[in-house]
Amino acid sequence: MGKKPYWRKNAEGKSWLRRGLMRITQKANYLKLGNATDEDLTTDPNRPLNTDIALKIMFTGMTMGLFTGKKLEDFFQGDLTEWKMRERSSMVWKAPI
Questions:
Q1: Is the pLDDT of residue 9 over 50?
Q2: d(C-alpha 55, C-alpha 57), whole Å
Q3: DSSP for 21-51?
Q4: d(Cα 39, Cα 35) in Å, to the nearest integer?
């Protein structure tokens, strides 16, 4: 039989629903982000609902490129008045002078 949907409870009674500010799914992502933040997210998958932990996950994931493969610094070049924002597009924004 195929892979069980992430929202259904596993043998341990846990589901890997979209939780936290970054809407984490799949046990592998809970494990990856837990390791990166030194937080045990797999023992209690509800921990990303805690604001402090959710923010830690968000900033660690963005700075390390754990969500898209691109680090936050990849989007900033030069000074902060001119930066590129790419969310699966090539939109470029320049601050008015």
A1: yes
A2: 5
A3: TTTB-SHHHHHHHHHHHT--TTT-TTGGGSH
A4: 7
